[in-house]
């Protein structure tokens, strides 16, 4: 079928796993979808590149399973794994910043890709906000890695999130403004990222042409 | 008797728990997702098991017997408050069903609007009128809890190999009312008893399309007759033309391709036995 391995960046898996994922994409009922969901979640937690893409492969498997057997096994498993990881997120963050960042990236990516009747999954709204608010705490703003993650997520799903829950987005941006203005010890890279996302939301989740130039051109006019 | 409509919610639980407790074995081999049914059972064990049991508290009688994903129709109804605390997977499943029901409701409203228009036209042109239920919308079931419960019952019936075979073998335009199974209309106002009976009859009819096993299905027909097609005709008001029951035997026998009778009759008998306690 049209689903090929390279579409989903699964080359980093061993060959058996790649085969399993391919079958999951093309003939989901022939594989153990619970195992597949575990593989995808586990990989997302340790592979930053994959965690940015994993929502897409999840989306495709969910579609394929629904079409083939009206099933929802895979989606359930992914969500419940996400929930397990969510419960121990603070512990994860303490152990490995990278894994924590991967987790946030993954949950946001799933939020972005998996929809229920074209609407965001309500169950994920608060958890996603909880993660982003955690990234906006003072200690997290000190880590460029976390600031970067926060900003990337807001670029992708900020608008959707605000639509489903405006007040929490306000709450998040109070923190970001305070962080930008008042927090001592932020690197200028972190400040740049924060400033950009503040402008981005202020412009209705679009960066104006001039702002884009300012942030992304090699030479500003 | 009147309890049926009064204390619908409570009754809902009780009666369905009864149903379920007869159910699990019946036709479980026909479940589409039966292939990985065991997997699901496993998954249930680890991790989410604890909470699951907790939230399903009210209906725990069956929840432990039942594979999840076939959770009983009532669980989103009365228990919906509790399901907020359920695992994310189930929350999303519930949301999906809820939003689907609402979407269906809009569609149905549009459709009956259209139907009313044509009916009015017909009235004015020919003078003949089906005055019976012109104001469909007044008779529409809009209680979310009821709709969700009904949808679950329908999904349960559709999640069978028999249903897959049926929709493949009999294209929509070939289906005849009274002859072929017709999914009950969840948007019609029906008493609890009438609805459950419709579902039951529908499922019995679907069993005619069970995949061939060692068991045969010849008895299914008799059982349908026994259960009384009269009831179905009563119920399927949306069909202006009366179904001709003599066709029933011919159409059904097509799908029966000479199997001897062991497996299915048992199932059907079980269905019947679940009918009895409710009648009483």
From TrEMBL, chain A:
Residues 7-204 form the MIF4G domain. GO terms for biological process: regulation of translational initiation. It comes from the Eukaryota. Belongs to the MIF4GD family. GO terms for molecular function: RNA binding; translation activator activity. GO terms for cellular component: cytosol; nucleus. It holds the Pfam family MIF4G. Keywords: Cytoplasm, Nucleus, Translation regulation. Functions in replication-dependent translation of histone mRNAs which differ from other eukaryotic mRNAs in that they do not end with a poly-A tail but a stem-loop. May participate in circularizing those mRNAs specifically enhancing their translation. Transmembrane segments: none annotated. This is MIF4G domain-containing protein. It is found in: Cytoplasm; Nucleus. Interacts with eif4g1, eif4g2 and slbp; probably tethered by SLBP to the 3'-end of mRNAs ending with the histone stem-loop, it also interacts with eif4g1 which is bound to their 5'-end.
From TrEMBL, chain B:
InterPro entries: SLBP1/SLBP2 (IPR026502), SLBP_RNA_bind (IPR029344), SLBP_RNA_bind_sf (IPR038294). This is Histone RNA hairpin-binding protein RNA-binding domain-containing protein. Residues 69-78, 243-254 have a biased composition (Polar residues). The keyword Cytoplasm does not apply. GO terms for biological process: mRNA 3'-end processing by stem-loop binding and cleavage; mRNA transport. The lineage of its organism: Eukaryota, Metazoa, Chordata, Craniata, Vertebrata. Residues 1-141, 243-280 are annotated as: Disordered. Belongs to the SLBP family. One of its GO terms (molecular function) is mRNA binding. It comes from Zoarces viviparus (Viviparous eelpout). Keywords: RNA-binding. One of its GO terms (cellular component) is cytoplasm. It comes from the Eukaryota. Residues 10-19, 41-68, 97-107 have a biased composition (Basic and acidic residues). Residues 142-211 form the Histone RNA hairpin-binding protein RNA-binding domain. Coiled coil: none annotated.
């Amino acid at each position: 079928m049209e689903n090929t391995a390279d579409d989903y960046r699964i080359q980093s898996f061993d060959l058996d796993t790649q085969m399993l994922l391919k079958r999951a994409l093309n003939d989901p009922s022939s594989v153990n979808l619970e195992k597949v969901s575990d593989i995808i979640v586990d990989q997302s937690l340790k592979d930053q590149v994959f965690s940015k893409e994993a929502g897409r492969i999840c989306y495709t498997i969910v579609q394929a399973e629904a079409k083939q057997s009206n099933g929802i096994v895979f989606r359930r498993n992914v969500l419940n794994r996400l929930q397990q990881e969510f419960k121990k997120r603070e512990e994860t963050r303490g152990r490995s910043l990278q894994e924590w960042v991967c987790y946030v990236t993954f949950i946001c990516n799933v939020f972005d890709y998996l929809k229920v009747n074209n609407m965001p999954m309500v169950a994920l709204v608060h958890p996603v906000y909880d993660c982003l608010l955690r990234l906006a705490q003072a200690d997290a703003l000190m880590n460029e890695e976390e600031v970067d993650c926060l900003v990337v997520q807001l670029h992708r799903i900020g608008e959707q999130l605000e639509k489903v829950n405006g007040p929490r987005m306000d709450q998040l941006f109070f923190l970001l403004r305070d962080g930008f203005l008042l927090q001592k010890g932020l690197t200028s890279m972190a400040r740049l990222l924060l400033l950009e996302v503040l402008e981005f939301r202020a412009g209705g989740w679009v960066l104006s042409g001039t702002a884009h130039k300012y942030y992304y051109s090699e030479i500003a006019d | 008797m009147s309890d049926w409509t009064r204390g619908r919610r409570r009754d809902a639980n009780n009666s369905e728990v009864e149903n379920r407790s007869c159910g699990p074995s019946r036709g479980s081999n026909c479940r589409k997702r039966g292939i990985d049914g065991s997997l699901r059972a496993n998954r249930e064990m680890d991790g989410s098991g604890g909470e699951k049991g907790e939230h399903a508290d009210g209906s725990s009688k069956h929840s432990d017997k039942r594979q999840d994903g076939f959770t009983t129709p009532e669980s989103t109804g009365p228990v919906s408050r509790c399901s907020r605390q359920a695992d994310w997977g189930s929350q999303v499943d519930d949301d999906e069903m809820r939003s689907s029901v609402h979407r269906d409701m809009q569609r149905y409203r549009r459709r009956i609007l259209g139907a009313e228009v044509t009916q009015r036209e017909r009235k004015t042109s020919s003078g003949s009128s089906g005055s019976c239920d012109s104001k469909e919308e007044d008779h529409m079931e809009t209680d979310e809890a009821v709709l969700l419960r009904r949808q679950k019952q329908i999904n349960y019936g559709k999640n069978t190999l028999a249903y897959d075979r049926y929709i493949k073998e009999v294209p929509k335009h070939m289906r005849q009312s009274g002859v072929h199974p017709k999914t009950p209309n969840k948007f019609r106002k029906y008493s609890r008893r009438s609805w459950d009976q419709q579902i039951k009859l529908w499922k019995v009819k679907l069993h005619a399309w069970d995949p061939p096993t060692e068991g045969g299905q010849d008895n299914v027909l008799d059982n349908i007759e026994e259960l009384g097609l009269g009831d179905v005709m009563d119920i399927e008001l949306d069909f202006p033309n009366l179904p001709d029951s003599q066709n029933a035997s011919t159409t059904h026998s097509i799908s029966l391709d000479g199997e001897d009778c062991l497996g299915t009759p048992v199932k059907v008998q079980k269905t019947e036995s679940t009918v009895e306690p409710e009648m009483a």
